[in-house]
Amino acid sequence: MSAGIFELVIGDKAWSSWSFRPWIAMKVAGIPFDEVHIRLRQDDTKEQILAHSPSGQVPALKWRGQVISDSLAICETLADLYPEKLLWPADPLARAFARSASAQMHSGFVDLRRDMPMDMLNKYPGIGHTEPALAAAAQIVDIWREARLNFGQKAAKDQGFLFGSFSVADAMFAPVVSRFETYEVDLDDLGDSGGIAQAYMDMMLALPAFIEWREDAKKEIATRD
């Protein structure tokens, strides 16, 4: 497929965790797209989003005259359109686990989302460490460890991602990596024996696309009124 066929409508990079997911998926996979930025937390934010997306939410992928809403649906669409990018693991069992983990992240862990909202550019050590939020964080650590131990570390080309190479699952959990950093969540206290989850988190934070998103967030905040 040629460049310029996708427009990805996203919110502010400092806060829009849902936007971060398809954005980082497309960046790491090398899928070209035009970026449309909607400034959040403004009086006309809803109106601006509705000009692009009938759902009234970001992210939205504009493709061939249609709008695909929802971060996971966008990633699924990209995986279908670009099978050579292997956005889902090729092994059926690994793919099933990756889909399960992604779906859990998509619809669950509400306490973590509420008590530790994504705030890419700030640090709030200890804030939001409620019992329900930390219980959700511990579940995520378990998912990361199981993925790495059972699939990622056994992959033919293990690049440190959950299933060896970058997948939709990594995109879905990217905002959690940011949250754990912002609120200084101690993964060892949550059962990360051997630092497997911490190593995964460190790798994600050093990913060029992750760094690019953060740098863009800084530029956006600098230009806000």
Describe the structure in your own words.
- The protein is of the alpha+beta class and 225 residues long.
- The protein folds into two domains: 6-84, 3-Layer(aba) Sandwich (Glutaredoxin); 86-209, Up-down Bundle (Glutathione S-transferase Yfyf (Class Pi), Chain A, domain 2), CATH 1.20.1050.10.
- It contains nine helices and four strands; from the N terminus they run E-H-E-H-E-E-H-H-H-H-H-H-H.
- It has helices at residues 17-29, 45-50, 71-81, 92-107, 110-115, 131-152, 168-182, 196-205, 208-223, and strands at 6-10, 34-37, 60-63, 66-69.
- It has a four-stranded mixed β-sheet with strand order 2-1-3-4.
- Strand 3 (60-63) and strand 4 form a beta hairpin.
- Helix 1 (17-29) packs across helix 7 (168-182), helix 1 crosses helix 9 and helix 4 (92-107) runs antiparallel to helix 6 (131-152).
- The N and C termini lie far apart (39 Å).
- The relative contact order is 0.15.
